[in-house]
Amino acid sequence: MFLTVKLLLGQRCNLKVSGQESVSTLKKLVSKRLKVPEEQQHLLFRGQLLEDDKRLSDYCIGPSASINVIMRPLEKMALKEAHQPQPQPQPLWHRLGPVLAKHFEPQDAKAVLQLLRQEHEERLQKISLEDLEQLAQYLLQETEPWAEKKFSKVTHSLWPA
C-alpha cells in the first residue's frame, strides 16, 4: 500500500509499505526520503501518536492514508535552551483582563473574559492538523519572501488578511 507522509511545513512524499511494517521502520523510510532524523520524528495518524514498537495495522492504517510528521527539537538544542534563562511571556488572559476592566464593571469584565477563554478553548479543539499545516504555510509566506506560495488561495479563505 502507499501512504502519504507530510511534514507540517509542506513537504510530503509517498511511501510504499506493508500494513505489517513497524512504526520504527516507517520512521527509517521517512528519514531517508524527507531527511528528518528518526529521533526527531513524531508520527501522527488521525491525531494519535504512533508508537515505535507497534505495527501500522495496529492503528488500522490502510492504503492511501495520510501520516503527519511533527519534528521535535534535538536534545542538544533543548539542553542549551534549558540552561539559558528565558523570560516567561505573560498569558494573553492576564493582559486582556485590565483592558476589559477599563470598559466594563468588574463582574462584567470577569464574565466577558471567561466567555472569551471558553470560546477560545472550543475553537482550539476544532483545529485539525491540516488547518495547522495551512496556517504554518501562510505564516511562512508572510515572513519569508522566498517561501512557496502554493496554498495561498486556501489559507486566505481560512485566515483572511
Automatic annotation (TrEMBL):
Keywords carried by this UniProt record: Cytoplasm
Short name of any one Pfam family annotated for the protein: ubiquitin
Keyword S-adenosyl-L-methionine: no
PANTHER family found in the cross-reference section: UBIQUITIN-LIKE PROTEIN 4B
Record InterPro entries: Ubiquitin-like_dom, Ubiquitin-like_domsf, Ubiquitin_CS, Ubiquitin_dom, Ubl4_C_TUGS, UBL4B
GO cellular component, one term: cytoplasm
Record protein name field: Ubiquitin like 4B
Main subcellular location of this protein, as a coarse class: cytoplasm
Domain Ubiquitin-like: start-end pairs: 1-72
Intracellular or extracellular location(s): Cytoplasm
